[in-house]
Amino acid sequence: AAKLEKPPKRIVNMSGDTVFFPSSSETFDQGLLDGYKLGANEYCKECHPDSFHQWERSAHRFSSFNNPFYRKSVELMADQVGRERTKWCSGCHDPVVLFTGQMGAATQAKFSYDSWEAQQGLTCMSCHSITEVKDVKGNGSYVIEESKQYPFAFSKNETLRAINRLLIRMEPSLHRKTFLKPFHKTPEFCSTCHKVALIPALNDYRWIRGQNHYDTWYDSGVSGRAVRSFYDPPKAKACRDCHLPPFRSTEFGNRGGFLHDHLFPAANTALPFIRKDRETTERMQKFLQDKVLTVDLFAIRRGENVAVLGDEPPEVSPGEVVDLEVVVRTRGVGHPFTNGTSDSNETWVSLDGSTDGTPFFRSGVLDSEGRLDPAADRLWLYAVDHGGGHMDRRQPQDIHTTLYSNQIPPGAARVVHYRMRVPEDARGVIELSAGVHYRKFTRDYTTFSLGAAHPSLPVTTLASDTVRVPVRGPGRETGNGKLETKRGNPDPPWLRWNDYGIGLFLQGDLKGAARAWTRVAELAPDKPDGPLNRARAEIAEGRLADAKASLALAEKVRPGWLKTAFFRATVAREEGRLEEAEQDYRRVLEK
């Protein structure tokens, strides 16, 4: 890719395809753009070397046919339904190809996936030449133009180019106004590409929602706008707070010695790995391990009795069948985990049980070929094609429906239920270890994209938790507990119970959730979370009188809390007390 950074010649093609649909992207004058200028990354590098260095290793840089995972999917799509429909991808992935008119069927014979334009990815100008965000419907819903430049910007004369740089530094206001518009700082700008819909023009079927970072963020506590969220961060966050963090730089245009990191740290560990870019791979892994998720070996459940695995874990008996409750919680994430290519991302929960160092139970392991245990609990979205088979080649035109989704919303939890038998010969203790692991693509999709000879992609352990449980009988460790453990979740008991209740609630176990949240109210009587959340379950069950009592207790603990007002209004609406409901809803809307 580095060898293709500069075009072999200046490309000005104004006779190509000017129909960009089914992408929602369009040019300002409905015409084509100069590919040389749209891909002028080296020009930007002259004044912005630090930003360029970050960008050239980013997933944005490798968004087009320089990304083999994307390329294989689009090649398959073009073979099956024709090149015209692949424009649906191009507004976000291949802007240099699309806006130079090379995506149409008429230009197919001349186009090469290895051409200079096809290797550019999402260039500097691709984002910074956008003049309008049309709406928040996604699918590349923006307007782009050939941006205004100071004189001599693309001159081949080095003296004239030096004059261009001098002019910018002497009076940078026009340059800044042209390339950094107010909407560039907003989540709405990110929504143009990080929100997707499959449309009838693509699939000859119906409208289907695809990946959606924007709406899920907007409707979460992270945005600062949501009233139904379980948790709210101390301060509201937007996309740029996580994915464009500040880093120190003396580059021209820095603010107080800082710039925004154009590596866009996120979750794509595959692209730097196949480029053998170890530094970027490790940066992405470090980003993922920064408490994005936590895992909690929460309890042993015997019927309705839930015995928490705390400092003094409950005993188990040799030969006993044990039900284990493992809670996975999203924390440092503003949208569901996993998101993006959620149908081919591979995030899973593992559980290992051992006694005297000998494993007796394993779930969520990779086989010798790098494929995941099919019974593992996966945090992903399972889509099926029109024939009912697994949609495992990322061919969007074939998606029929989502069979299930185990994605965890921001500030929420999932309970994974395990059943294991303690070995008959177990003595002393058994050791239980849980983990959450991430791999950008499944082994099968990696093989499809890169070939069977390519090694598996790196696995990142996002969180882990270990506890030792005493076994009844001879050889039992004295002291009955305070056993040495490696707990990955230091939360207080009430918070662990609250997460457990959230996971049960989202799985539809309303009675179990209500019991868990009653325990929260007992453990933390000074916090409104227990009674408020219990009211959620009671409302869902239609137990409105009980919900009113729970909400009254939440109001007493925290007077004026608008979350309480929202659910109180919901109860009032269900009971036909519409004026009371309206009053509370209006209070919520004002905030």
Structure explained in plain terms:
The chain is α+β, with helices and mostly antiparallel strands and 591 residues long. Helix content is 32%, strand content 18%. It has 22 helices and 18 strands. It has helices at residues 35-38, 41-45, 49-55, 68-81, 87-93, 95-98, 124-128, 158-170, 173-179, 187-191, 200-203, 213-218, 239-243, 270-274, 278-288, 443-450, 493-506, 510-523, 529-541, 544-557, 562-574, 578-590; strands at 26-27, 130-133, 142-144, 195-198, 208-212, 246-248, 258-260, 293-302, 305-308, 321-330, 346-355, 358-363, 377-378, 381-385, 399-405, 413-421, 429-439, 460-470. Strands 11, 12, 13, 17 and 18 form a five-stranded antiparallel β-sheet that branches. A four-stranded antiparallel β-sheet has the order 9-8-10-16, covered by helices on one side. Strand 11 and strand 12 (358-363) form a beta hairpin. The longest helix is centred in the N-terminal third of the chain and has 14 residues, at 68-81. The radius of gyration is 27 Å and the shape is globular. The two termini are 50 Å apart. The mean pLDDT is 93.
Structural class: alpha+beta
Q: Kindly, what is the distance between the CA atoms of the first and last residues, rounded to a whole number of angstroms?
A: 50 Å
Poorly predicted regions:
none
**Global Rg:** 27 Å
- Indicate the mean pLDDT: 93
Total helix count? 22
How many β strands by DSSP? Answer: 18
Helical content class: 25-40%
Tell the overall outline: globular
> Could you tell me the strand content as a percent range?
15-25%
Task: Summarize the biggest pleated sheet.
Answer: 5 strands, antiparallel
